[in-house]
């Protein structure tokens, strides 16, 4: 990062978070995205990693304590980075949050147990529970923490700038929250999805043979288009 000017706008406006996660059964996988149109944030304000699926190490911008990992935080199986706050999922299903807390995004509900995954958006947080439901807390100006009441059997969650995406066990996708660019308008007939992701103002879904990009993207901004774009086939 030598010579990087944090005052410059970051290169990919739709991507805005950096998180690294690992489990006892997996080697560490790294997902690189960045702070989007904010520009003043260096790589989503923090870079975190898990060592031995136990301890969290963080470094980088620390204006609101986002790199001050809580003392004694161990047995971590997953982490998530928001703009200025972080979440850690422990092996016992409990969630720990730290960093900026202007909207209660690090105030993990006391009733939240049996979490299996976490996601962090702009000043809000999500947790997937073992029963397939999704819990949300923090900023709720776009109802982004209000998961649809009919959302069940979820197996994955993702958080964007003001919207959320959930993947169901049957391969279908649900989305809610801010919809300024169609990021929660799941394309009709979208099925057999195996993975999801949420950028600041767009949503991604991966099928066994191709990836679908929906919402606003850098390329679509250039061409002033708002139609889904099919990515090249990922099949072997």
Descriptive terms for the model:
236 residues, mainly beta, Methylamine Dehydrogenase, Chain H, 3-stranded antiparallel β-sheet, 17 strands, 36% strand
* CATH overall fold name: Methylamine Dehydrogenase, Chain H
> Helix and strand string, N-terminal first?
EEEEEEEEEEEEEEEEHE
**Count of separate DSSP helical elements:** 1
Strand order of the largest sheet: 14-15-16-17
**Which structural class matches the secondary elements?**
mainly beta
State Rg: 17 Å
Number of distinct beta strands: 17
The average pLDDT value, as a whole number, equals 76
Q: Give the % helix.
A: under 10%
Please give the domain count: 1
Give a quick account of the main beta sheet: strands, pairing sense, barrel closure: 4 strands, antiparallel
CATH architecture: 7 Propeller
Approximately what portion of the residues adopt beta-strand conformation? 35-45%
End-to-end gap: 34 Å
The CATH superfamily is: Regulator of chromosome condensation 1/beta-lactamase-inhibitor protein II
The CATH class, by name, is Mainly Beta
Shape type:
globular
Extract low-pLDDT stretches.
1-47, 217-236
């Amino acid at each position: 990062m030598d010579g990087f000017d944090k005052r410059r706008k970051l290169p990919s406006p739709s991507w805005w978070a950096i998180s690294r996660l690992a489990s006892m059964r997996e080697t560490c996988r790294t997902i690189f995205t960045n702070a989007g149109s904010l520009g003043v944030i260096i790589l989503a304000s923090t870079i975190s990693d898990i060592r031995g699926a136990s301890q969290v190490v963080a470094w980088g911008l620390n204006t609101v304590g986002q790199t001050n990992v809580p003392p004694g935080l161990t047995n971590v199986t997953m982490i998530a980075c928001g703009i200025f706050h972080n979440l850690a999922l422990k092996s016992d299903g409990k969630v720990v949050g730290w960093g900026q807390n202007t909207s209660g995004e690090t105030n993990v509900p006391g009733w939240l147990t049996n979490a299996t995954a976490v996601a962090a958006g702009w000043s809000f947080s999500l947790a997937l529970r073992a029963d397939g439901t999704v819990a949300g807390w923090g900023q709720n100006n776009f109802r982004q923490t209000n998961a649809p009441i009919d959302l069940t059997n979820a197996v994955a969650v993702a958080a964007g700038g003001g919207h959320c995406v959930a993947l169901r066990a049957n391969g279908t996708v649900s989305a809610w929250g801010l919809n300024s660019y169609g990021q929660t308008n799941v394309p009709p007939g979208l099925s057999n999805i195996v993975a999801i992701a949420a950028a600041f103002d767009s949503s991604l879904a991966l099928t066994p043979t191709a990836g679908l990009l929906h919402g606003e993207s850098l390329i679509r901004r250039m061409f002033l288009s708002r139609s889904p774009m099919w990515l090249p086939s990922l099949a072997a």
